[in-house]
Amino acid sequence: MTLRSGVHIPEGATVVIDLQALNRDPELFGPDAADFDPSRPAPPGVAPFGLSFGAGVHVCIGQDLAAGVVARPDTDPSTHLHGLVTGAVQQLFRVGVRRDPDGPPQPDTATARPYWGRYPVLLGG
Ligand code: HEM
Predict the structure, then answer these.
(1) Position 116 in a domain
(2) Is the entire prediction scored with pTM above 0.85?
């Protein structure tokens, strides 16, 4: 197939989408694209979470459940759908999650991307 950009993808090719680069693309999200800013307005036609949930006919059907929906000015925070991931992170902070001083995080050696393979934490007081 040939993309709108003119790039041709031959049959059988493996296509890897570099989410790390795409979701921080300054051309789409501005010069501070690398900063965490959930309130940053996305340009028309671009999802606020970039391509994290895919696109097209196989786009993730659980994206609202997982990541929540974008709040409007009149949104009631107590009933708003913030998403499972947000809820899990909030709950971790409520129970005092912190890095385990005896277990330094280890990079995931199975990928060239800067992901953690192991990130030990402590909970509670
Ligand atoms: C942070 C959490 C999640 C991420 C990052 C994520 C990401 C994705 C991505 C990238 C795809 C597209 C895969 C492709 O193009 O083939 C996808 C598809 C899908 N996701 Fe998720 N997802 C998440 C959570 C969920 C949840 C909570 C559900 C269900 C409640 C769900 C259900 C699905 C289903 C059924 C598909 C397949 C859709 C199709 O092929 O038509 N996902 N997800």
Answers:
(1) no
(2) no
